[in-house]
Structures are given as C-alpha cells and as structure tokens.
Amino acid sequence: MCCRLLFVLETRDASRTTRKSPGSQSALRHLNQQRIIDCLLAGPSTQAELARQTGLSTATVSNIVKFMQTAGLVTTEPTTSSGRRALNVKLISDGAIAIGIDFGRRHLRVVFASLNYQIVAEKTVILPLGHRSEDGIAAAADLITELLANTGLGPSALIGAGVGIPGPIDRRSGTVAQGAILPEWVGLNIQERLEEALDLPVVVDNDANLGALAEVTWGPHNGLENLVFIKIGSGIGAGLIINGSPYYGNVGITGEIGHATVQEHGAACRCGNRGCLETVASTTVMINLLSRSASPPETAEDVVEQARAGATAAVRVVDDAGMAVGQALGNIANLLNPEVIVVGGPLAGLGDLLLDPIRRGLLRHAVPVVGESTTLVMSSLGNRAEALGAAALAFQHVGIRAP
C-alpha cells in the first residue's frame, strides 16, 4: 500500500453527509497513519526511527502508535537506542484481520486478509436466487465462524468487515437503493444489520466500487490516477477512480453503466427504461439467449466454458455483448479519459474472447486519441476482486476511527 492510497480512501469517507475536505485534520491523520504502516511493513522500528523516516513529530508518532496498539495493529516493547530508552513498535500483520464480504445474486464470498495484504482464508458458497437479506446475513455469520475455526484465529483478531453488494447505496441513509440486483434487500441498512449479527464494525459499498478499490490496492494498478472497473454479471456496474480518488457523486450512486442506453428501441429494463446495456450484455441475458442451444447454460461459468470450447452460439452471444459494453465504455472514456479500464466479474475467464469485442466497441465509439490511449485489461483478481476490495475498505474503516 502506498501513502497516496490512504488519502484516496479518506475521500471515500468525505462523500458522506458529514463531508471533510481533503486537507482536513482527519485526512492528515489517516495519511500519517499509513506512512507509519508503510515503514513498519519493512520491519519493527522505534518511535524515534519512525519519526525520522516519516518526517512526523515524535508526539504525532506516539499518538498514532497508541491508537494502533489499542486497535490491535501493533505491539510495543521497551528497548534502547543509542544508549537511550526507546519504544520499539512491531506491526501485527497476522494478528489484525479484516473481513471482506461479497454478496451476489447467487453467491456469498468471504475472505480474511492481513494488514500486509495476504489472504489468510477464504470460502465461497452458493445462495438461492431471491434469497432474503436475513438468510444472506446469517450465511455470512456462519461462514465467518467456520473460517475462524479453520484458521485457529480468535474473534479478537477481527478488526472489522467490509461488505459489497450488487446495487447502489444511498450514502445519505446508508440503505440499499432501488436498482439493486437483490430487490429483496432494497431499503435495508446492511451496516446496522451486519454489525448486530457480527458484533464488529462494518462498512458497506457497491461491489463495482470495491472492485476498483481492489485494483489500486491488491491489483497491479497501484498509483494510477484514473481507472474504471467494470463488473459484468447479473447486473453491470462501474467503479471510478478519478484523479486518484474514488468518485461517489452527490448521493453516492455513480457508475450505473448498466443503465446506459445502447439500443434506443430495445427491450424494457428493470429500471423502467428501454435498451439499457443490461438488457443485452448481462450474464442473465446471455444465459437466456442460449437457453435453446443444444446444451443450455445454467450459470455464467457455463457460458465461459462453452465460449472457450468454441460453441458457435456462445461465441456470438459473447461477441455481441462485448460490442455493446464497448459502446457504453466509449462514452465513459470520452467523458473521463481513464488510463486503464479493467473488466471484472464472472466472465473474466473469457479473456480475449470478451476483451476483443469490447475493444472494438470502445474504439468505434470513443474519440480516436482517447480510445487508442486507453488500456483495456481483464482483472487479474478474478471473482475475488470485490471481496478483496471489501477487506481493504475494512482496514480503511479502522483508519476512520483514528484519534
């Protein structure tokens, strides 16, 4: 993790109703904490050494270390340095575990991650279509208990949970807004319900936003200033990193690229409009289009398998969907001019079978210089991206509680 990242993460909190300026004392404290963490990732240091390495005052370092010790992120012990008494600080990278929870339309994925961004444990289970929020939350609690038992960790090692859902979050109320792929969850305050169930601090975000966060933390794109992460699944959404900061707009609902019109007189969409990208390129639509083939797919993974095997109908459906996605991304690229567009979701295994038509659509609909200068790649994080981004968000939540 780089120092710039925590400033990026602070901007996420700034989009809430109690807004903070990027130069606020809170943002500065979070940035300073990250500087100390970066130093400690290289090994234990005394507080005086941390002050020299970071350029912070000894009083500032002392206050941050006290907070981190209370949060279970570091241990301290007396030592001597240059013949003087000192306090040695050691990062407990394996002792502070963040939970990343990814709720999908048909799946639940949970990861345990350490502060040095190592996956300690993970598991995915299938959820029934149309599952109730109570059932999904109970399944998450059970899965966390199972992973604790499997790893031998105690509950005290868990510093909090980040949660992603496939739908917009109204950041004014913290509730799931209309348009979610999980309509049974609309109006629910997931943070409150999960904090009750898990007895842990919880922070919630849209899954595409967490995919973008994962790409600039866990992925190979750390340090990029302008990135778009697009998740193609039962719904289609985009997470935006603009000028080094996650972008949330007015009420937190951004990146709804799945409801960009790509066919003026197309099929009616669940949002009430016609011809939305989701009506021609979501995995649900792909499965429906292939329902009359010799081997009708039941899941997105089946679509991937058939297309990779060269099944004519599957290849055509993927190609058409890719062109439509590229059209929508061309408009996004013209507006934002990102350095990189990362494609994620359950179709990531298609590789160039999906990227090639997306690239054709992008080049066709973007201004030439924009299209040619935009790098289009498949996510290297696969189906883990959203859960890994959620774990990163949980570590940010610890930072929010800094003194």
Characteristic terms for this protein:
disordered N terminus, 5-stranded mixed sheet, Nucleotidyltransferase, domain 5, 14 helices, 403 residues, alpha/beta, Arc Repressor Mutant, subunit A
Compact summary:
With 403 residues, the protein is of the alpha/beta class.
Q: What proportion of the residues is helical, as a percent range?
A: 40-55%
> Strand content of the residues, in percent?
15-25%
Q: Which structural class matches the secondary elements?
A: alpha/beta
**How many structural domains does the protein architecture include?**
3
Low-confidence stretches: 1-24
Terminal CA distance: 21 Å
Note the main sheet: 5 strands, mixed
Strand order within the widest sheet?
6-5-4-7-10
Number of strands: 15
* Continuous helix count: 14
Q: Taking all residues together, what is the mean pLDDT?
A: 86
CATH topology of the largest domain, which one?
A: Nucleotidyltransferase, domain 5
Q: What CATH first level of the largest domain would be assigned?
A: Alpha Beta
Coarse shape? globular
CATH architecture of the largest domain: 2-Layer Sandwich
Helix and strand pattern:
HHEHHEEEEEHEEEHEHEEEHHHHEHHEH
Looking at CATH, the homologous superfamily of the largest domain is ATPase, nucleotide binding domain
Cα radius of gyration in angstroms: 22 Å
